[in-house]
Specification:
Strand content: 5-15%
Number of helices: 15
Bound molecules: manganese (II) ion
Radius of gyration: 21 Å
CATH topology: TIM Barrel
CATH architecture: Alpha-Beta Barrel
Distance between the termini: 45 Å
Structural class: alpha/beta
Largest sheet: 5 strands, parallel
């Protein structure tokens, strides 16, 4: 691939960072506070703006309705705050798991109060999306059961069908619904949308604007995620990604920290779809879903974003003519070598050049560190927290 062609693809490669990735988070055992963590939506958007400034590819921010919007606060004001920080509001994530009423699930709960609570919240979320100019409604459900026999699996499936159809009908025509799946946690016996097949059926049934969201941490060990991606693309049902890495479960580690080759293989399938099958991949929503418990938030986000760019660029560099030829000759070693050659190419100098063209420092992490932003906000936010009387960190649960 020619350099100019690669640079044009990089120009179109955008990654959405999540507001909750800038806030204090923890594990189910405890939350660890960082003085520089964002406590308010304003601070989260400011930090997202910084990541965009140093990487040049993160113009939108995913928001969590319950954590980022208060009842009675004008959502359009939040959109303006984003604009002031050089970013826009991206995917709207309703919260269907935190309220007490959701103990046995949200829309799949046998408790009708939980169902109507969820309906109201998602309807509000669609209104917020319209107000902030977002066209993505991103749905993840903690719904499931902990014990065999606790509830009827198929009745719960039907409740989910009904809710998704109703919400799809309530969305404006240009809005996309993302249906995310996860095999376990917080439910430990069964999850109502456990895998991509279930998400596919629900999305297909909900309507033409519903697609599947692949969270890279939401699979069983050793599952071939790139095959799922390739299939969803071929079925025109891939909505987007939640990027993170993991070693064991839904660990929410920075992308590529454990297995960068797996990320490369996902991008490889996307480039195959684009270049071999003329598949429109321009609408894929690349989003980050991570919880930075140990690393400083903004540094972890910059690492993730630059890693995504690197793996994407490597996948673009696969010599697909050679690959096609090797596959036709059934030369297994040559075929695999096409992928390995691209993966082991050091694309960092190329990315540095691409950044320079966009007036961005070739080393975003180094430039960010040199800016002193983190030290400044740590001081400011600690003072602001003290003035408010205690820690006003995120509502992460
Ligand atoms: Mn996710």
């Amino acid at each position: 691939m020619e350099k100019e062609q690669l640079f044009a693809l990089l120009d179109d490669f955008k990654i959405e960072t999540p507001s909750w990735g800038y806030a204090d988070t923890g594990t189910r055992f405890g939350k660890f506070l960082q003085p520089a963590a964002a406590g308010t939506i304003d601070e989260k958007l400011a930090d997202a703006g910084i990541v965009h400034r140093y990487t040049g590819c993160c113009p939108t921010v995913a928001v969590h309705v319950l954590w980022d919007f208060s009842m009675g606060v004008d959502a359009t004001a939040t959109a303006k705050v984003a604009q002031n920080h050089g970013v826009r509001i991206g995917a709207i994530n309703p919260n269907l798991f935190q309220d007490q009423v959701y103990k046995f699930g949200s829309v799949t709960s046998p408790d009708e109060r939980a169902q109507s609570h969820a309906h109201r919240h998602v309807t509000d979320s669609i209104h917020i999306a319209k107000a902030v100019g977002s066209n993505v409604l991103s749905l993840w459900f903690a719904d499931g059961t902990n014990y065999p026999g606790q509830d009827d699996i198929v009745t719960r499936k039907q409740r989910m069908h009904g809710a998704l159809r109703q919400w799809h009908d309530a969305m404006p025509q240009d809005m996309l619904m993302m249906v995310e799946y996860k095999p376990f946690e917080p439910a430990f016996y069964h999850t109502d949308i456990a895998d991509w097949g279930m998400a596919y059926i629900f999305a297909k049934d909900a309507g033409p604007n519903a697609k599947v969201l692949v969270d890279s941490g939401h699979h069983y060990q050793a599952q071939n995620i790139e095959q799922i991606v390739a299939w969803l693309l071929d079925e025109q049902m891939l909505g987007g990604f939640h990027f993170n890495d993991r070693k064991y479960a839904d660990d929410d580690l920075t992308l590529g920290s454990i297995d960068p080759y797996a990320v490369f293989r996902i991008f490889h399938e996307i480039r195959n779809a684009a270049e071999w099958r003329n598949c429109d991949v321009s609408q894929i929503a690349y989003m980050v879903d991570q919880s930075h418990n140990l690393k400083p938030k903004i540094e972890a986000m910059i690492q993730t974003v630059t890693t995504a760019q690197e793996m994407f660029a490597k996948a673009c560099l696969v010599d697909r003519d050679k690959l096609r030829d090797a596959q036709a000759r059934i030369d297994v070693v040559d075929s695999e070598t096409c992928l390995r050659n691209a993966f082991f190419t050091d694309v960092r100098p190329l990315l540095g050049e691409w950044r320079k063209r966009h007036n961005i420092d070739p080393d975003p992490l180094k430039a960010y560190r040199a800016s002193g932003y983190q030290q400044r906000i740590a001081k400011e936010r600690e003072a602001a927290r003290a003035a408010r009387g205690g820690n006003a960190g995120s509502a992460y649960a």
